[in-house]
Request: fold
Amino acid sequence: MYKKEELKDWVQEMAELCEPKEIYWCDGTDEEYNNLMAMLVEEKKAVPLNEVKRPGSFAFFSDPSDVARIEDRTFIASLHKEDAGPTNNWIDPVELKEKMIKLYRGSMRGRTMYVIPFMMGPFGSPLSKIGIELTDSAYVTCNMKLMTRMGRDVLKELEAKNEFIPCLHSVGYPLEEGQEDLLWPAAPLEDKYISHFPEERLIWSYGSGYGGNALLGKKCLALRIASVIARDEMWMAEHMLILKVTSPQGLSKYMLAAFPSACGKTNLAMLVPTIPGWTVETIGDDIAWLWMKDDGRLYAINPEAGFFGVAKGTSFRSNPNAMMSIRKNTIFTNVALTDDHDVWWEGIDGPVPEHLMDWKKEDWTPSKNMPAAHPNCRFTVKADQCPVIAPEWENPEGVLVSAILVGGRRPTTIPLIHEALSWNHGVFMGSMMGSEITAAILSKNIGQVRRDPFAMLPFIGYHVGDYLKHWIDMGKRSNDALLPKIYYVNWFRKDEAGDYLWPGFGHNSRVLKWIFERTEGIAPANLTPIGYLPTEESIDVRGLPLKHGALQELLSIDTYAWLDEVKSIESYYQTIGNKLPKALKMELEKLTSRLHYENLNQE
Ligand code: GTP
Ligand code: SPV
Ligand code: MN
Reply:
């Protein structure tokens, strides 16, 4: 965190290091955005889309080596290794800075350095934070305009807030005299660094232009650095959507859900209920900042101002509100293009076209037998273009949280939904969450299940054990009657043939309804060793195309599978070491004995 007086000097110092040909201070106006886009089109980096079908929209195509977050090249450079914990890559901050300074030296040659003042959180919110990103990428600048509150107003706000989080970004591809630019400049993998200096609240990113690696307000600031600030100041920075659900009686409640990358947050946040009378509205689709007010209750804001959503699989059937959000003024990255310059991806509505330009800018026909769009292709769009954005989405006071959902992709064992017995048991559920790795991450292990506590594994800026302790400590400041109830959901359970048992998407409203009614104290539940499960009648399945026996299976608990799960959690807990909160060890022990007791009774 730097003081406002330090801003000019810092920009100057970074410019002397990176040697851009010019420095440009962004004002955040539409005119500026349009000029930058026109320049990007001129440089052939952006492709303007069909003005009738997709007005004001552009497509970008990244280098095939730069398509997702790179966890292997993401670093938490705390002063002490112990503070980064067992789940983060750590490098000594002095050593890392030395390395990166060498890379940054002259790295912006031939390019403009954009100075982007941005605000995470609504103006006037006690939690909002100012960041200043310096970047040599106009693409990043345009994305930041859609994803954050950006520009002149933020500099004004800096006068009042005094402090900002410095974020330095370079694509790492300097242009020497006469050297031609690439359409997607980036550095080789071994030179890419997404670095965080938690004590200094400083972010340095080098070598990647993609998503969370480069739009530094998102994962780097609003999660990794914010999680450290939140621990110190007793609030929480979480990888969670925020939604508003309203019953047929007109009662509204707010819910959060922590699912790992590409596991359904945007879809749930924009869901169209398939049960009559219920509505869902969106507050946020990726990140929530929470704090406890004097009433002992948790409140949440969405620090972002836009959506950087997975395009693949998005359709009018699966997520009509996302489709309507991206009708205009949208940036698409790594999608395919139709011959009339509209966007296309696997899973979008309509027949598969005979011919496309794929995300590698090559001709594509169905016979190519390769996906035309990259599995992590994305859209960037302002949140206010979402037809179901809740009117209070920018309320600086936040919204009152009634329920927190956790979940991920688990083909077996985890039922459709279960409710925690207490706050601490809910923290236990979050701590042992697992999910299959998705294409949102550059990884050889896609599809393998890994533990991903509260979907924060790649985003905790400190020791995972301390992070879990922070959850327990937040609970201690209030009591279970005032705290949100915690639920574990799993839309991804499969049958023996490998098909999803639950139809998901809009039908998830049926689960939201049960949760809503639980928080009202009116929905029935069965007490089981793992928590409260809905009785079969309490999930509204009217009109639902479920296979025979599917609901029973979705709500069943295999105690032997759970005892295996317990063993696996035990060994996972060992990897966390002695910082694992005792309260969680106790929850695991209690779960184990409840499962054994159940087994004895069944025999
Ligand atoms: P990030 O932006 O990476 O954090 O992802 P996200 O959590 O917002 O995931 P998103 O909603 O974009 O969904 C990712 C993928 O999961 C898409 O391909 C969806 O089609 C799929 N998906 C979302 N919800 C469901 C569901 O209820 N059931 C099934 N089977 N798939 C789903
Ligand atoms: C995620 O991976 O969780 C995302 C996309 O939301 S990115 O912004 O690239 O991190
Ligand atoms: Mn995400």
Notes: The chain has a mean pLDDT of 97. Residues 69, 211-212, 218-219, 261, 286, 308, 440 surround sulfopyruvate (ligand 2) (CB under 6 Å). The longest strand covers residues 112-120.
